[in-house]
């Protein structure tokens, strides 16, 4: 079963559009992890186990692992844990890769074979041939940056090309030319709800990964209203810090579960 | 000493504009490395030792390490070897990273602290704030994609914005707004020599990293003529496969040295 089908099944089975982002920052871990050499894995595993019930997807951010020696081994074990304990929940490796042919093939091996992710985030700036080695793995998902959630998204993504902003050209090109095997999705920031609405209009029912809820200020209601598909799905609304660090203390897992359930329910009220 | 200063000194001391790319593909290694668990490191170390005399920089491509379990440990040891044995030769980690604030900080730690690189390649699509955590490390270099060497470079990088292609806006923005600390450089493919000339006109004497010579078909003379600065430097002309796999056999190190010397000399004939 491919990534998109797995995601659609999970949306239905979990009644959730919540993507739990795994951005482990040891400086924010509860005291119980002080002096724990296996804290990266242990903390994330506890978050996964506490929130799986409420998640349509998990999204580990590779930078938070790659900043540490042996971080990749922790990431590998974490994804293996998710794939083993929650085989119905897709894993999106947030890596924003992008390079030419031979190198892109190596990155595809990294994401899909070494780490076992169902999908990977990609940067489209280098064009079609840089995406091809990922697109060809058509049982896996390719989640391309379109309009990101940060203020700097305006610097290049909103430049006007033939009267329309660049991000719309990116959305149109991916939807009409790169998605032949139906395994594409896009990253669209919740902090730009009007742009989200326009993108939904361009890409039909293509899944959208939505960062920017919570600390970055994105609004849940506007995100769901402007981003959902006709059947009330189509979105992976990500929350990382708001769930991972809901409690700084010993009750971190219960607090994460509560935060995930609360956000899942808030999202569902607007579907 | 910062990356740019280290690079300028090395251009002079080595009389070379050649960047040796380290893209280790075990399928192409000489037979001596069959069944060698340490082949990624061992092969690259031998190439480094054979070519250092002719190199203005080394550019390990992280994907070729990240495709393997424990590949990061090999990359770490390789860069430590270069920094120890050839402290005057800058190391550019080719990783094409790009993400928002907190995550970008983790990637900066990965490239500069964990791996000890002098510079890292970056993707500008997410804008200024995604670059800031790298730019702030002003003793290190930020090498941004501008016009890449692959055919897909045309898909988005050449879209017209106010009558000028996107890549020119990227070059202008980085040169005029992101380079306050003077630690920026750009990636420009040798396969687009006219665009290289235009970019040199926009960015003054900013260093340019040039992939695309050799297997991709870029021409050395046109690259040097269109890309050099007034003092005959300004370029890191990369060759990877043409040097690494100059001989498939036991004489790989000598063949790599010969290939590096030959290309260094060919570049110099056109300076």
From TrEMBL, chains A, B:
Keywords: Decarboxylase, Lyase, Pyrimidine biosynthesis. InterPro entries: Aldolase_TIM (IPR013785), OMPdecase_AS (IPR018089), OMPdecase_type-2 (IPR011995), OMPdeCOase_dom (IPR001754), RibuloseP-bd_barrel (IPR011060). Coiled coil: none annotated. It catalyses: orotidine 5'-phosphate + H(+) = UMP + CO2. SMART domains: OMPdecase (SM00934). One of its GO terms (molecular function) is orotidine-5'-phosphate decarboxylase activity. Pathway: Pyrimidine metabolism; UMP biosynthesis via de novo pathway; UMP from orotate: step 2/2. Belongs to the OMP decarboxylase family. Type 2 subfamily. This is Orotidine 5'-phosphate decarboxylase. The gene is pyrF.
